[in-house]
Fold this sequence. Notes:
heterodimer; A: about 140 residues; alpha+beta; Heat Shock Protein 90; five-stranded antiparallel beta sheet; 3 helices; globular; B: about 110 residues; alpha/beta; Transcription Regulator spoIIAA; five-stranded mixed beta sheet; 4 helices
Amino acid sequence: MSLDSSDAREWQDLLDLLMPADANAIAKATDTISQTLTRLKVPEEKRLEVALAVQEALANAVVHGCENNPSKEVRCQLQCDSQGGILVRITDPGPGFNPLLLSDPRQPGKLYAEHGRGVSLIRQLMDEVHIERADAGNQITMRKY
Amino acid sequence: MDITVRKRSEVQLIRLRGPLRLGAAVDELRQVMEEAVGQGDTRIAINLAEVPMIDSSGIGLLVRFLASTKQRGGNIKLVQPSKFAVQTLRLVGVLNLFEIFDDDEAAVESFA
């Protein structure tokens, strides 16, 4: 089952960004999304949670999906509905991964690990998360009610 | 990210301004921390009052240096993290690894 915006409510397209797979381009994209949500008067807590989830998803796309190769591109799409719901879809050209194989970074033996927290954080910040292979590549779709 | 460093009572006080996230911000803080630890300054207090967001890369850096300073008899303590930063640290299970203070002075005194 995939999460998409083709359910009954009307989704408005807000942003459709293409960014180079570069760590410093992530900050610019995240800030653009945050500014857009601010203009829409999204409450601060919700805005911060979405922005951080986007930051994490873009980081995964750049680092793992594109292997930090700036000649590759990551696509970031933002939509909202009339009830304040937010949907973000991030696509990278990488081979994808099986999220079921990720271990829980909150286990005692992993607390001091330098990496491995991104997907766990995304799942806790957003209300729905789907990770799948799509025609365009590896895709994560995140929804906040 | 803007980083200022000063020393008080043998404690490195690092003040950050801006999001602590993958990219230049984390790279710059990593360099500051490596210099401090390399010079034997393992008692570090980081003021996060003006850090609106810490991503998992920033958290990874903090816990990595928490471990290395503790191994050397030091510590990293956090000052005035925002409500959202605290929430993020809690969500990834590392909040309880850190001592947290309301101001720089209290953090410095705690090393005594």
